[in-house]
Amino acid sequence: MESKLEKKYGLFTAIAMVVGIVIGSGVFFKAEKILTATGGNLKQGILAWIVGGIIMISCAYTFSVMATKYQYINGIVDYAEATVGKKYAYFVGSFMAIIYYPTITSVLAWVSARYTCVIFGFSITGGECMTIACLYLISSFTINALSPVLAGKFQVSTTVIKLIPLFLMAIVGTFTGLRNGMTAYNFTHTVSASTANGLFTAVVAASFAYEGWIIATCINAELRNAKRNLPLALISGTLITMAAYILYYIGLAGTVKNEIIMAGGEAGAKLAFQTVFTSIGGNLLFVFVIISCLGTLNGLMLGCTRGIYSLAARGLGPKPKVFSQVDSMTNMPVNSAILGLFLCGIWLFYFYGANLTASWFGFFTFDSSELPIVTVYALYVPIFIMFMVKSKGLNFFNRILMPCLSLAGCVFMIIAAWFAHGMAVVAFLIVFFVVMIFSALILHRSETVNK
Prior knowledge:
Elements: H1 11-22, H2 26-37, H3 42-69, H4 75-83, H5 86-120, H6 127-146, H7 148-180, H8 182-188, H9 198-210, H10 226-253, H11 258-264, H12 266-312, H13 320-323, H14 334-356, H15 371-390, H16 396-421, H17 424-450
Helix pairs in contact: 1-10, 2-9, 2-12, 3-9, 3-10, 3-16, 4-5, 5-6, 5-12, 5-14, 5-15, 5-17, 6-7, 6-12, 6-14, 7-10, 7-12, 9-16, 11-12, 12-14, 15-16
Membrane topology: Multi-pass membrane protein
Protein name: Amino acid/polyamine/organocation transporter (APC superfamily)
Organism: Lacrimispora xylanisolvens
């Protein structure tokens, strides 16, 4: 007998979930990079936030329609299976488990550590920072592995806490900047001439801050009147997120000159908070930023611990019987979780050697915080195309127009990644295809054994 989840969430709860899932550390982490990429051109930086937000909103809407059509579907792997097929879903799942979740999680561990180092005056590329990053990874893993309930409570708490510095800077920083003229100065002065690739680089950076919205489609089975409320929640939630990010960006510009933020990086952001909220208040709000990063890390670690398990539960991937085991005490896929932590450690080592010091990897050097996210947009393309082919019962707006806009957004992200990262995209694609070939060999072996 099939069990059904209770329809317990209304529209406003769903909107709050979308906002809580999407808003994370990315806006704090990437605001300075967007400003640098555009040469301190505040208007062009805002345009990057808008373009990235529109791509997110169009894709979110298409997936929301997909979620209402394929009821009880959870996550991109299942959407891939419903539209393209089981084999494609398997390769999407392999990418998510081996590359996507571990790379983003390892970067978030370092982001959390670097803001901690700013508070204590340590180097953000030195041994102290990497040690703290490792401790954050292990702590997040431990909380998720030993007490999923505690991890869930921590996630809820950080969702509330991370909104505090965001909205305070957006409101107080903007008001202060309008009063003292700093906002007008930053809007009318640029630090350097922006390059042709500046906007593309900024949009790719913004994609990191907007990532996570697809997770919200998982609540469709528990949402009252899902066919109406899920699209409304996703559109409203993503619009609120985009507005919050832009207002924070403008608020930041009302505190100190753009060149200070660009030159100082995280120290510049700390100075911005201290300028508006005094030294003590600025440091306190900066602690909230760290907690926000740790909350995002906690959520991503949850995905890491279940990455290989999502394949093993389907009887796929390496050693399905081993990695599909769930601990009866903690209700956690322990073997999958341990492998997830191990992959995070490998990708953290890579991130340090490729991005924080003189490159250890030669040609194979790329930004593991952005290119995996752009790859997800590339993986959406076959899903959107097959959705249009198979969804004959939908109206033109839902079947053709919005999926085509989503496709255009995905293609834009792919092009932007090339302009932003150049040959590093080739290096990343080589690593990507090696992982896919490895996954194909495992799939072939499992199919041979099961014959």
